[in-house]
Design goal:
It comes from Bacillus cereus group sp. MS39. The protein has two helices and four strands, in the order E-E-E-E-H-H. The chain is α+β, with helices and mostly antiparallel strands. It is globular.
Length: 59
């Protein structure tokens, strides 16, 4: 968890806290909503599209 404000890759809102996946912030609210969303929910497709923005760096 980092202390500075960053933009959540899912909701695109500036947040101070959340989880980091490949150095990209996912705020706690989005993380909670994503894990509770069923695959037949229209929000599921939205989350997939947003997660495709993840910048994966190769080591």
């Amino acid at each position: 968890m980092k202390a500075q404000n960053e933009v959540c890759i899912v909701c695109e809102t500036e947040r101070k806290e959340g989880i980091y996946v490949y150095n990209n912030l996912i705020c706690y609210e989005c993380e909670k909503d994503m894990v509770n969303t069923e695959t037949n929910d229209p929000k599921y497709i939205y989350y997939l599209k947003q997660l495709r923005k993840l910048e994966v760096s190769s080591f």
